[in-house]
Amino acid sequence: MDDVLYVNGGNPLNGQITVRGAKNFVSKAMVAALLGEGPSVLRNVPQIRDVAVVTGLLELHGVTVHHDAEGGVLTLDPSNVESAHVADIDAHAGSSRIPILFCGPLLHRLGEAFIPDLGGCRIGDRPINYHLDILRQFGAEVDKRAQGIHIRAPQGLHGTKVTLPYPSVGATEQLLLTAVRAEGLTELRNAAIEPEIMDLINVLQKMGAIISVDTDRVIRIEGVARLGGYRHTALADRIEAASWASAALATRGDVYVRGASQPEMTAFLNTFRKVGGEFDVDDDGIRFWHPGGDLSSIVLETDVHPGFMTDWQQPLVVALTQATGLSIVHETVYENRFGFTDALRGMGSTIQVYRECLGGHPCRFGQRNFYHSAVISGPTPLAAADIEVPDLRGGFSHLIAALTAKGTSSVRGIQLIDRGYEHFQEKLTALGAEFSHG
Ligand code: EPU
């Protein structure tokens, strides 16, 4: 029963842990290596399942990947890229949405791509319409089939002007990975500008791309005929850092997150302070702690960067169950990211979800049938329970709830957490958490 963790909660998490490169950057930088004619070297790579999945997909396309897991160094050599077998791609892609980003690079390298049904977390519909529209605008022909999507570009890919209906992270990456080697100029309006995207632009520039980012969410790319490899150190995982910070707050603990970086976490740090948590930034990381006394309720809205990230929301909501008063959280990035609160209610928290846009601006999910606002009334002691992990961030939040609740909780489906949290069980041990496998 390796997939179940029995957590004996109710004790503060105290100690030090290290976060390495951001999952949501590393996987994209790995795909970017496909565009180069020479080998690339990526440092600060965490040992998580998403990296293994993308490694498998790259190897199927003839990329030689060497991963020094301990040192966190990936070497990717795309000299022999070749067409992969459809069934094999299917077998490898089950748990990831990254395959859709292979389109541009594969079209440039091979003239065609086959993308299977996509996985990823169950946090809403997660459509790929923006991605397909972008590829069509570059001149690709998209053919949807039962097993997936076949894409060809018999006339090559040509620069274009795109305005995104919403600043989607994945669609912005799709455009970047396609435009850098497309013929001519590309302009993207309403682009996502998350730090992970800026670091992808750093990588592409190192490879030889010409990309400029304007202040008003406009990105311009001048296509080039060839790209080389890159050497790069991945930016830190700000979602993982904030997850451990929320765990420290919920359990009334004190956690030093080595590797955490302030500039990418401004919105989180402001909120953490408003709730009553304390932090101290130094050159190597950030210490997060609960100073004692009561936590304060807040009104919070998730948003695209530079706003409060949707991925920070779920861990923080667990800490908000321990704050005094009514907190309001309006989720504006995904229509269905409060499913994880069912388990928290089962543990004794008072959380109600609403279809209305509460506490802030109307968002695109208002007047529709989506429970995308939550009101959390606290403080409520949490009771131990049997929990099933729903998705990556929701799963980590359940783990925090189990660590906060007195008594022994069972958390099932913990393999999902390995997708994005490196060595989380070793880190829990380092922080003094009590848990076993049965
Ligand atoms: N959307 C569309 N059509 C599309 C693409 C997106 O309607 O073609 C919508 C989505 O349904 C969603 C919104 O646009 O409502 C934003 O989605 P976005 O494309 O920005 O998300 P993503 O690229 O699929 C990445 C991260 C997510 C993170 C979001 C937002 C990766 C692999 N995933 O997803 O991370 O929540 O950006 O920052 O980079 C996670 O790490 O657990 C995770 C879910």
**Nearest-integer average pLDDT:** 94
The CATH architecture of the largest domain: Alpha-beta prism
Percent helix? 25-40%
**Low-confidence stretches at least 5 residues in length (pLDDT < 50)?**
none
Distance between the termini: 8 Å
CATH topology of the largest domain: UDP-n-acetylglucosamine1-carboxyvinyl-transferase, Chain
Task: Provide tags for this entry.
438 residues; alpha/beta; UDP-n-acetylglucosamine1-carboxyvinyl-transferase, Chain; 14 helices; 31% helix; binds uridine-diphosphate-2(N-acetylglucosaminyl) butyric acid
In short:
This protein has 438 residues and is an alpha/beta fold. The protein is 31% helix and 25% strand. It has helices at residues 23-32, 49-60, 86-93, 103-110, 129-137, 169-179, 195-207, 238-250, 266-275, 310-320, 341-346, 392-404, 415-418, 424-430; strands at residues 4-9, 14-18, 40-43, 64-68, 73-77, 112-116, 141-144, 148-152, 161-163, 185-189, 210-213, 219-222, 231-233, 254-258, 278-281, 285-289, 295-296, 299-301, 323-330, 350-354, 373-378, 386-388, 407-412, 434-436.
Kindly describe this structure.
- The chain has 438 residues and is α/β, with parallel strands linked by helices.
- The chain starts with a strand and ends with a strand.
- The longest helix has 13 residues.
- The strands form 6 sheets. Strands 17, 18, 19, 20 and 21 form a 5-stranded mixed β-sheet that branches. Strands 22-23-1-24 form a 4-stranded mixed β-sheet, with helices on one face. Strands 2-14-16-15 form a 4-stranded mixed β-sheet.
- The protein contains 14 helices and 24 strands.
- It has 2 domains: 217 residues, Enolpyruvate transferase domain (UDP-n-acetylglucosamine1-carboxyvinyl-transferase, Chain), CATH 3.65.10.10; 211 residues, Enolpyruvate transferase domain (UDP-n-acetylglucosamine1-carboxyvinyl-transferase, Chain, Alpha-beta prism).
- Strand 18, helix 10 and strand 19 form a beta-alpha-beta unit.
- Helix 2 runs antiparallel to helix 3.
- Bound molecules: uridine-diphosphate-2(N-acetylglucosaminyl) butyric acid (EPU).
- The site of uridine-diphosphate-2(N-acetylglucosaminyl) butyric acid (EPU) has 27 residues, from helix 1, helix 5, helix 6, helix 10 and helix 12.
